[in-house]
From TrEMBL:
One of its GO terms (biological process) is ribosome disassembly. This is Tr-type G domain-containing protein. It comes from the Eukaryota. It comes from Pyrodinium bahamense. GO terms for molecular function: GTP binding; GTPase activity. Keywords: GTP-binding, Nucleotide-binding, Protein biosynthesis. Residues 1-153 form the Tr-type G domain.
Length: 210
């Protein structure tokens, strides 16, 4: 997520190139910024082929979704859309074969599936942009987390020790129907609330007061 696109000197394309030069990764933009610094006013979604334009100074709470490509960005959108599709279809043989046979871009559903496969396999890194302080671009970012990053259901069962018998190994499926298991990783003291324990839940569920 290329943040602070509303700041002076913001340059999305320079940052993408820096990911290659300094991090050695394979970035694939799935959004393009509309403007930069003081003129940053929206993003173009290369997956859904939609323009998102924010309204006024409402901290990104409201935005218009338009079908039109912003004026002057037609060539840029075509270039990066083609790069995205070519990188994505390589992740799925069936989608790739269909793309090579017909020359038509995959459906949004197939494209998202391919992007997710590439992300999970570390074949490439989807790149988004916005300005988090003003909540602009955060909503699409959260959607991308859901669409492309692994969920607990993608992970193998969690293994751990029985706290009452450390010789016994326990295995828990990563779902809410299993018995509760978790790991407390931090304890803090608040003068008003008291002791606060932070923990990660691996299986089952816990309710307030339990």
């Amino acid at each position: 997520f290329v943040n602070k696109m509303d700041r002076m000197g913001a340059d999305f394309y320079r940052d993408v190139q820096m990911m290659v030069d300094q991090l050695g990764c394979n970035p694939v933009p799935i959004q393009l910024p509309i403007g930069a610094a003081a003129t940053f006013k929206g993003i173009y979604d290369l997956v859904n082929m939609k323009t998102l334009m924010w309204k006024g100074d409402e901290m990104g709470a409201k935005f218009d979704v338009l079908d039109e490509i912003p004026e002057g960005m037609e060539d840029l959108v075509e270039e990066y859309r083609e790069k995205l599709v070519e990188k994505a279809v390589e992740q799925d043989e069936e989608v790739l074969e269909k793309y090579l046979e017909t020359g038509e871009a995959p459906s949004v559903e197939d494209l998202k599936k391919c992007i997710r496969k590439g992300t999970l396999a570390f074949s490439f890194v989807p790149v988004l942009c916005g300005t988090a302080f003003k909540n602009k671009g955060v909503q699409p970012l959260l959607d991308a987390v859901v669409d492309y990053l692994p969920s607990p259901l993608d992970l193998p069962p969690t293994k751990g020790k029985n706290p009452k018998d450390e010789e016994e190994e326990l295995v828990r499926e990563n779902n809410t129907e299993e018995k509760f298991s978790g790991l407390a990783f931090k304890v803090a003291t608040d003068p008003y609330i008291g002791t606060i324990t932070f923990f990660r839940i691996y299986s089952g569920k816990v309710k307030a007061g339990e």
